[in-house]
Automatic annotation (TrEMBL):
<dbReference type="InterPro" id="IPR011990">
    <property type="entry name" value="TPR-like_helical_dom_sf"/>
</dbReference>
<feature type="domain" description="RagB/SusD">
    <location>
        <begin position="346"/>
        <end position="469"/>
    </location>
</feature>
<dbReference type="Pfam" id="PF14322">
    <property type="entry name" value="SusD-like_3"/>
</dbReference>
<dbReference type="GO" id="GO:0009279">
    <property type="term" value="C:cell outer membrane"/>
</dbReference>
<dbReference type="Pfam" id="PF07980">
    <property type="entry name" value="SusD_RagB"/>
</dbReference>
<feature type="domain" description="SusD-like N-terminal">
    <location>
        <begin position="21"/>
        <end position="227"/>
    </location>
</feature>
<comment type="similarity">
    <text>Belongs to the SusD family.</text>
</comment>
<protein>
    <submittedName>
        <fullName>RagB/SusD family nutrient uptake outer membrane protein</fullName>
    </submittedName>
</protein>
<keyword id="KW-0732">Signal</keyword>
<dbReference type="InterPro" id="IPR033985">
    <property type="entry name" value="SusD-like_N"/>
</dbReference>
<keyword id="KW-0998">Cell outer membrane</keyword>
<keyword id="KW-0472">Membrane</keyword>
<dbReference type="InterPro" id="IPR012944">
    <property type="entry name" value="SusD_RagB_dom"/>
</dbReference>
Length: 503
């Protein structure tokens, strides 16, 4: 992508000459940053555009890198479809990596989508202060959204890769297209700066347009950053502020914490979610179809999707809940049957043809492969768990239990029996796993707590010892390189590395 851009830029310069006058002329009939960013409406459209990459990111790639790359879900082989190495390698902890780079396509696409968000936010932030708006509140809202989006994208990148280039202004030519890798601490500092600014510039949930970033979302992102950095007192202050001032509440029924195809979106528990809309406008998703085990017949898929014209599929079988996760639910936990369903596949080559699937995203909809439910990124339940963890890490274990138990009670469970700091730490860790299952949290919980080798090492040993329990067809076994790459970070994309001297 970069090579094509550079070649086009150089070709245009060669064909039109290199005079100073040419370089300062702005084509008035072509849409560019010099002609577009002139009005409040222009900036509104630009901010809308900065959200767009989220739909592809959360529909296609984030769950591969952040949920299936954990012990929560796994890749169930469908040998009738064939091997899809980039996805299988992520699930198997076998992503080929050399000299800090990888050719894995999931890594490349996630990396680029984040930088599209950053690029669009940079364009907005570089120009918005030079424009007069109808009110300061409107300007601050749009600027705050751009700051939040840039902070969010860099937070995803730094947790996936550790070190990435820190672009904070628009790229104007070949010379500034490649930057050295910034350190993790440098990236953290920029995320903090942007998220802090957004938390004061943005309106709260009660007054913000639905679906847009709010002050509560910015504070939650900032709390997540501090949690990752183990800045426990800052997490406590932020999350207590959210609890006291931002108007969020747990939805009484866990099932209703997640949106349906056209209802219950951005509800009282939602802090930030990715917006989808069923239909022909191009705003839809199809996550549940990507997650279903396969091959599945029309009769088997019909009760899951509720469409009037169910279609059979023979495809990859992604994000299948593991026996380990299923066993993590306590007896009586209402979340288990809401989050996980079962389907028997008559065409499966496994001896046991019964598979679990992610039920919490299986919402009735009209059109095959066209869904409209939103994707939850931050929920109030996680804010409460952030607060509980921060309190416990400061030795305030009894107070931490208060917030942990709010989440447990909603799930139909009694108060936690943990009384020591160590036991409470483990209780919160386990609660996050089942409360936030399939919401792309597990991998980051493993990395930030330093437990990747411990937990994934043991998980991988179980997969190798009993492949049939992990959805392998009869006689099939994991590949020889399975569970050999237990690094906290992915390698940087090889395609991007070829275009810069700094990777």
């Amino acid at each position: 992508m970069k090579r094509k851009y550079i070649a086009t830029w150089l070709l245009g310069l060669a064909l039109t000459g290199c005079t100073k006058d040419f370089l300062t002329v702005i084509p008035e009939t072509a849409l560019s940053s010099a002609t577009f960013f002139k009005t409040e409406a222009d900036f509104q459209q630009a901010v809308n555009g900065a959200y767009v990459p989220f739909r592809q990111m959360y529909n296609e790639r984030a769950w591969v890198l952040e949920e299936m790359h954990s012990d929560n879900t796994y890749y169930a082989r469908n040998t009738l479809y064939g091997a899809v190495d980039p996805t299988e390698n992520v699930a198997d902890f076998a992503v080929p990596t050399a000299n800090g780079v990888t050719a894995n396509d999931n890594v490349l696409v996630q990396y680029r989508l984040n930088y599209v968000i950053i690029s669009r936010a940079n364009q907005i932030l570089s120009l918005i202060d030079g424009i007069t708006f109808s009110t300061d509140a409107v300007k601050n809202n749009l600027k705050g959204q751009a700051q939040f989006l840039r902070a969010f994208a860099y937070f995803d990148l730094v947790r996936l890769f550790g070190k990435v280039p820190l672009h904070l202004v628009p790229i104007t030519g070949r010379e500034d297209a490649a930057l050295p890798l910034s350190t993790t601490d440098e990236i953290y500092a920029q995320i903090e700066k942007d998220a802090l600014a957004a938390s004061t510039a943005l309106p709260n949930k009660a007054t913000q347009e639905q679906g847009r970033a709010t002050s509560g979302a910015a504070k939650t992102l900032l709390a997540n950053l501090y949690l990752t950095q183990k800045k426990w007192s800052q997490v406590e202050a932020l999350t207590k502020d959210i609890v006291a001032k931002d108007g969020y509440a747990l939805v009484p029924d866990y099932n209703n914490a997640f949106s349906f195809t056209s209802t219950n979106k951005n509800n009282q528990e939602s802090v930030f979610e990715i917006q989808y809309m069923e239909g022909a406008a191009g705003y839809n998703g199809n996550q549940i179809y990507r997650f279903l085990p396969s091959p599945i017949s029309a009769a088997e898929i019909a009760p899951i999707t509720g469409t009037s014209n169910p279609q059979p599929t023979s495809q990859e079988s992604n994000n299948i809940p593991t026996p380990d996760l299923i066993a993590a639910y306590e007896d009586g936990d209402k979340r288990k049957d809401i989050s996980i369903g079962y389907v028997t596949l008559s065409g499966s080559l496994r001896t046991d043809q019964k598979y679990p699937y992610i039920k919490k995203y299986a919402r009735t909809h009209s059109l095959n492969q066209n869904t409209g439910q939103n994707w939850p990124v931050y929920r109030y339940a996680e804010v409460l768990l952030f607060l509980a963890e921060s309190l416990n890490e400061q030795g305030k274990t009894a107070e931490a239990a208060t917030y942990l138990n709010q989440v447990r009670n909603r799930a139909g469970l009694g108060a936690s029996k943990a009384t020591s700091q160590a036991d409470m730490r483990e209780a919160i860790f386990k609660e996050r796993r089942v409360e936030l299952a399939f919401e792309n949290k597990r991998w980051f919980d493993l990395t930030r707590t330093g437990r990747v080798k411990e937990i994934i090492g043991a998980y991988g040993a179980k997969v190798k010892a009993n492949p049939a329990a992990y959805y392998f067809p009869s006689g099939a076994v994991p590949p020889p390189n399975a569970f050999t790459v237990l690094d906290d970070y992915y390698g940087l994309p090889a395609v991007e590395a070829a275009l810069t001297p700094y990777f």
